[in-house]
Backbone:
């Protein structure tokens, strides 16, 4: 038996909306008007698709009775023909969304997710690689249309230019972005799978020694004399000259020293504090590193204080506001120290090599390099001895460098037994 249709009038709907009493009005033929509250309602219909009951929302109270009936008839015809208009609409909207989602949009989402537990230096270096190597080629392209070949084409030119390490890093970032996209349903597959296999990290030579460094006594003495001559000739700023003099005295990582602020230095107590966030290591496991200053280092810092212009210890006019590693390396080489043989980071090797050669115990050398040694309990109980023995070690080291530079006899190392680490 056919369903009775067109049971309602526009007046009935108007009155029901004005009263605002929640009710359901039946127009017949599967069409209903549901009053939610005063002047608020919804048109919907019921039907069957392949024997399965379906409910379709057609519109709100702004839709007229005639429009609702016309839309009901259209939906009934679609259901009768086996067409699921809602599913088709969702598929169409998903396809539009996928077409509009670019690799750059996915990259931004990934970066927000990824950077939460990363330090600022790592985040900035990764952003730099994404902006320089990845987004120019892929940023505006639809993610759903990308292929493995497109991703490979980003890394190949980098590797072919000889920068295999950078190609490996870029491939890793792309793989992480694509894995994130798969996890969030943006693509059925991880389209970057095996990309890192094509661009592995280059193997280190068995004789690889990291940063270049001149560590023999004659070479170190020559470098110190060249630096002093360069500085005395007034060829660099007070900030650069202070950095060039302090790097040999204090075996700090270059970025830890160059990002230092005046608040970190206590000249009265002779202590320089490197904040935990400037130290190397996993977030949450880093600690402040305290450096007892030698007399020579204190003099350099006191002289530098006369040129203080802001919070940075080594200010510059660059983007960061402070001296950079490359700038210090350039000054190092202008002083006559050969490029490829020595860099600012190499002073850590000078300390690690010569200090041991002259008899400084390994544990003290490692402490000077800010390397952790021993158990957590041992480190905690040795903290009281740390400052005293390191103050002695750094003062002795400063005297050693002065003696090398001036061609004098190396001062003897004399550590009292109660100063040594157990």
Residues:
């Amino acid at each position: 038996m056919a369903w009775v249709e067109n049971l309602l009038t526009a007046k009935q709907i108007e009155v029901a909306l004005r009263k605002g009493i929640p009710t359901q009005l039946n127009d017949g033929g599967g069409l209903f008007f549901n009053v939610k509250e005063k002047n608020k309602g919804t048109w919907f219909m019921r039907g069957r698709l392949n024997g399965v009951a379906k409910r379709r929302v057609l519109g709100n109270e702004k839709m007229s009775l005639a429009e609702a009936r016309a839309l009901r008839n259209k939906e009934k015809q679609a259901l009768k023909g086996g067409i699921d208009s809602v599913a088709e609409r969702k598929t169409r909207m998903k396809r539009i969304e996928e077409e509009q989602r670019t690799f750059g949009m996915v990259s931004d989402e990934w970066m927000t997710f990824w950077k939460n537990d990363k330090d600022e230096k790592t985040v900035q270096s990764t952003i730099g690689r994404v902006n320089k190597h990845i987004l120019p080629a892929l940023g505006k392209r639809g993610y759903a249309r990308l292929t493995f070949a497109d991703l490979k084409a980003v890394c190949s030119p980098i590797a072919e230019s000889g920068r295999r390490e950078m190609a490996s890093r870029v491939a890793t970032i792309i793989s992480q972005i694509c894995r994130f996209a798969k996890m969030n349903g943006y693509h059925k597959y991880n389209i970057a799978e095996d990309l890192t296999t094509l661009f592995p990290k280059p193997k280190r030579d068995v004789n690889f020694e990291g940063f270049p460094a001149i560590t023999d006594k004659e070479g170190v003495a020559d470098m110190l004399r060249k630096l002093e001559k360069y500085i005395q000739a007034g060829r660099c700023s007070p900030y650069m000259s202070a950095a060039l003099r302090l790097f040999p005295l204090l075996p700090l990582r270059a970025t830890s020293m160059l990002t230092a602020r005046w608040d970190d230095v206590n000249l009265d107590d002779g202590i320089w504090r490197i904040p935990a966030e400037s130290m190397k290591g996993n977030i949450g496991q880093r600690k402040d590193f305290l450096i007892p200053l030698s007399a020579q280092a204190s003099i350099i810092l006191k002289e530098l204080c006369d040129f203080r212009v802001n919070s940075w210890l080594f200010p510059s006019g660059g983007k960061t506001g402070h001296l950079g590693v490359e700038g210090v390396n350039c000054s190092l080489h202008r002083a006559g120290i050969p490029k490829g043989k020595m860099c600012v980071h190499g002073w850590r090797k000078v300390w690690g090599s010569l200090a041991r050669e002259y008899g400084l115990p390994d544990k003290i050398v490692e402490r000077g390099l800010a390397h952790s040694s021993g158990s957590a309990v041992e480190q905690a109980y040795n903290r009281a001895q740390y400052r005293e023995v390191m103050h002695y070690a750094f003062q002795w080291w400063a005297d050693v460098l002065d003696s090398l530079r001036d061609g004098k006899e190396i001062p003897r190392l004399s550590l009292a037994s109660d100063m040594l680490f157990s």
Notes: Residues 383-406 form the longest helix (24 residues). Residues 205-209, 377-385 have pLDDT under 50 and may be disordered.
